[in-house]
Amino acid sequence: MDKFVIHGGRPLKGAIRIHGSKNAALPMMAASLLLPRGERLVLRNVPDLADVRTMAKLLVELGVHVERGGARLTLTVEDDRPVRAPYEIVKTMRASICVLGPLLARRGEAQVSFPGGCAIGSRPVDLHLKGLARLHARLAVRNGYILARGAKLRGGTVYLGGTFGSTVTGTDNILMAAVLAKGRTVIEHAAQEPEVQELAHLLNHMGARIDGIGNHRLIVHGVERLHGAEKTVIPDRIEAGTFMAAAAITGGDVTVENVRAEDLTVVLETLRQMGVRLEAGTYTVRVNAKGLRRAEPVDITSLPYPGFPTDLQAQFMAILTRAKGISVVTERIYPDRFTHAAELSRMGAEIRKQESTAIIHGVAKLSGAPVMASDLRAGAGLVVAGLAARGRTEVLRVYHIDRGYDRLEERLSSLGANIRRAKEIAPASSSPAAATA
Ligand code: EPZ
After folding, report:
1. pLDDT for the residue numbered 127
2. Does ligand 1 have an atom closer than 6 angstroms to the CB of 405?
3. Is residue 435 pLDDT above 60, yes or no?
4. Model-level pTM?
5. Whole-number Cα distances in Å, 237 to 30, 162, 331, 407
6. Ligand 1: does its nearest atom lie under 6 Å from the Cβ of 399?
7. Ligand 1 in contact with 335 (CB < 6 A)?
8. Could you give the 3-state DSSP secondary structure of residue 334?
9. Which of the following is catalytic: 5, 60, 71, 118?
């Protein structure tokens, strides 16, 4: 297993180009299952990530030929009979659930391993199943699999509002099921994330008829069949926000390129409130924190889009551990998404957790320490903290971070960070101390 070794304290400088969005690319790849045999989908600006490779592996299992050329993916349906998404693949990536809707709509059946919980919470899929039932699918859960049948789905009204707001991949699944359903579907309380909007635009390129893209209410007029298309994946707003957090916490001056500022309005506003100077162009954002030794304290509440993204909560909490005062971070999407807080405390942060809120007393300095990434974004938050901490930080279990960031250490090094990838040495004895030797 790999780890990152970071020596903090260097202000980041220069320009960084943002890659395509993981959370846009994954459901767009799954949309290839909606195509008849022989039709192909071409996606450009696809990031080179572990999760993208996992989705490709799953699609191959489901009869899709996947060809990669640089950041271009060509997906051609060769066999439209397979309907099973096996546990072995689904257990490694929850986004695999996005094959459920398209398989059901196009092949009339789907057997998808039930995605279990993960480090950030229980993450049920009840809204996905209720939604598909509203399109007249027959559903059951047996032996760890969601079994869905529906020779011809029929349109209906689907409500996707849950305890924590709407559901992103739930909206993706219902959209991909409804585009081939007979008649009209109204999706109420649909997710509005840019990644969901991109999927809807792609489906319309493939011949679907979706109205109201970007709103909470989506209208889908079912069509008989779809055809191949080409589309470029939007930039990754979460990757962009992560580099902005790294620039802010190190007092750096970084220009983030190939980013859509309009996707990050609340994030940019939060940085301004922290005292960071920003120059936003259409596809670039200059993050200038030169001379900003400690950020202003701010309160952050994660919410569905266009609210503050939960996937940047850990990275911005890292900045607030060194703020000039008290900040309150409230997690409204995944109430338990605070595994990074305990690790940040190992670096000297003062964080008190109360249910789904963390109260952060800013400290003047963080000190380097061995810390453990429990999931993708928690890991990114620990890297951001390590870039500002005095001394040596080791971030263990980097495989979590590789799922959503392509060669993060090389790209941070290109901005002047002292970070490298190293092998975690398997402990000779069971004592934890041996592991970090
Ligand atoms: C997507 O997950 C993203 N993943 C997540 O990013 C992101 O954290 C999340 O949306 C929220 O923005 C992808 O796009 C691949 P949800 P998703 O369904 O679709 C509850 C990352 O780091 N809920 O919108 O799985 C759920 O438990 C990942 O890149 C139900 O109760 O999230 C959560 O509390 C992590 N029932 C809330 O809704 C359901 O049927 C939002 O979940 C579905 C969801």
Report:
1. 98
2. no
3. no
4. 0.96
5. 21, 24, 19, 17
6. no
7. no
8. coil
9. 118
